[in-house]
TrEMBL record:
Matches recorded under InterPro entries: aa-tRNA-synth_II (IPR006195), aa-tRNA-synth_II/BPL/LPL (IPR045864), Phe-tRNA-synth_IIc_asu (IPR004529), Phe-tRNA_ligase_II_N (IPR004188), Phe_tRNA_ligase_alpha1_bac (IPR022911), Phenylalanyl-tRNA_Synthase (IPR002319), tRNA-bd_arm (IPR010978)
Protein name as catalogued: Phenylalanine--tRNA ligase alpha subunit
One annotated GO molecular function: tRNA binding
Protein EC: 6.1.1.20
Gene giving rise to this polypeptide: pheS
Keyword Magnesium assigned: yes
Coiled-coil positions: 69-100
Alphabetical list of SUPFAM superfamilies matching this protein: Class II aaRS and biotin synthetases, tRNA-binding arm
Organism: Dictyobacter arantiisoli
Parts of the chain that traverse the membrane: none
Domain Aminoacyl-transfer RNA synthetases class-II family profile: 125-347
The keyword Ligase is annotated on this UniProt entry: yes
Length: 348
């Protein structure tokens, strides 16, 4: 009987040695789980098989064998747990190595946007006038008939008031502004002279669309009101603008014109930059390009805003931003500005 007990304990010790020997070289989770089932498995595990002799043992033998079984089991479980931990750490390190980030690689360049040519033109023009003491104001695109027409001395029968040309929001009352002047009227209504403002913004006209006309376009208007102001101030100021915008080599000329809100009125041309005034296809063989309209503010407009025309006078001007940009950058098609075609936008 004693021999049998010794043999059983010896088998348990041998099992422990063999199990630990086999555990040592294991380096994958799959092999480890297989080892676990083989030795510690509840159904067919080797330790379980050896334990099955327990019922055949005597009362004295049972606790001796039971303790040995438990000791072997505890030892195997402890080593299994250590191995699991070790494999987990190894796999983590491998994953870190695999997903390593090379911080020395150059970053990916982000696409950088740039200003739209019309925004840039507006900025260039307003900056030139800002250097001459003008401030920039902006206003609403939805206006009323008074500020867009009546206040500006545009009579009821003027062609600009034609129902066909104006986008009306409510009949004969609310409209999409056809020029930025309503904001200048509002500026004068709200403050006393001296006034020096430029007003850039969108304007709307119900026009037939072609290469040089769109229903929505941009304007910059300017207004100066003071006690002393003459046509010479107008000419000097606008010539300076032309030279800063297009270059000092360009010549300017003024031609008499007519606007209901200015008297006298004049249009300003600059010499053609392509032929230097000799005449070419671009300037329709005239040597000159029209860039803006201007004039001395009509006394009726001054009265409309509550200014005394005997005390104050001023000049005003207006230009189309698309036209200025087309002349400056040599663009022949107005619809490119609103087309959002990157091939066009990237060129400028
Ligand atoms: C053009 C001509 C012009 C004005 C706009 C103006 C504004 C007030 C009073 C008087 Cl509040 N005048 N603006 C004056 C002359 C010409 O624009 O051809 N624009 C594209």
């Amino acid at each position: 009987m004693v021999g049998q007990l010794e043999q059983l304990l010896g088998q348990l010790d041998a099992l422990r040695v063999r199990a630990l020997e086999e555990l040592e070289p294991i380096n994958s989770s799959a092999d480890l789980e297989e080892w676990d089932t083989r030795y510690l498995g509840r159904n067919r595990g080797e330790l379980k098989s050896l334990s099955s002799v327990m019922p055949k043992l005597t009362k004295e033998e049972r606790p001796v064998v039971g303790q040995r079984i438990n000791a072997v089991k505890t030892a195997l479980e402890r080593h299994l747990q250590e191995k699991r931990e070790e494999l987990k750490q190894r796999e983590l390190l491998l994953a870190l190595e695999r997903e390593r980030i090379d911080v020395t690689l150059p970053g990916r360049a982000l696409p950088v946007g740039k200003m739209h040519p019309l925004s840039r033109t507006i900025l260039e023009v307003t900056e030139i006038f800002a250097r001459m003491g003008f401030s920039v104001v902006q206003g609403l695109e939805v206006e009323d008939d008074y500020h867009n027409f009546q206040g500006l001395n545009i009579p009821t029968d003027h062609p600009a008031r034609d129902m066909q040309d104006t986008f009306w929001v409510s009949p004969e009352q609310i409209l999409l502004r056809t020029q930025t002047s309503p904001m200048q009227i509002r500026t004068m209504e709200q403050s006393e002279p001296p006034v020096r403002v430029v007003v850039p913004g969108k304007v709307y006209r119900n026009e037939d669309i072609d290469a040089t006309h769109e229903a929505m376009f941009h304007q910059i208007e300017g207004l100066l009101i003071d006690e002393v102001c003459t046509m010479a101030d107008l000419k000097g100021c606008l010539e300076r603008f032309a030279h800063e915008m297009f270059g000092p080599e360009r010549r300017v000329r003024f031609r008499g014109s007519y606007f209901p809100f200015t008297e006298p009125s004049a249009e300003m041309d600059i010499s053609c930059g392509l032929c230097d005034g000799k005449g070419c296809r671009s300037c329709k063989y005239s040597g000159w390009l029209e860039i803006l309209g201007s004039g001395m503010v009509h006394p009726q407009v001054l009265r409309n805003v509550g200014y005394d025309p005997k005390k104050y006078r001023g000049f005003a001007f207006g230009m189309g931003v698309e036209r200025i940009a087309m002349l400056k950058y040599g663009i022949g098609e107005i619809r490119l500005f609103s087309g959002n075609d990157l091939r066009f936008l990237r060129q400028l």
